[in-house]
Amino acid sequence: MIGVVEPVAVTPASSAARWTAFAYGVSIALILAHFVLGLPVQVSDSLGDILKLSASWSDLLSAQFTQQGFMRPFHWGSLKLVHDLSGGNYYVWYRGAHVLQVIVLVLLYLALVRPRTWTDAAVLPLGLGVLVGLHTFAGTVREAFPINLYLTVLICCFAAAVVVLGRYRWWNDVLLVTLFVVATLTLETGLLVWVIAVGGWMIGARGISRGGVVALVVLLAGYFYLRFGVLGVGSPGLAERSSGFGFGILEPSELVERFGTRPIVFYGYNVVTSALSVLLSEPTGGVFQVVRALRAGAVSPVMIVNLISSLGATLLIGRYIWTRRRQWQAGLTIRGGVHGATLERDDRLVLLFAAVLAANAVITFPYSKDVIMSPAGGFLAAAVFVAARHLLATAPSAAGTSTRWALVTVAAVLVASTWGLRAAGLHASLRVRAVAERLDWAYLDGNIAHGEVQIPRDARSMTVVRTLQDDALVRHPAPRPLNLPLGRLLGVED
Question: What would the pLDDT profile of 434-446 be if each residue is shown by its tens digit?
Answer without folding.
Answer: 999 999 999 998 8
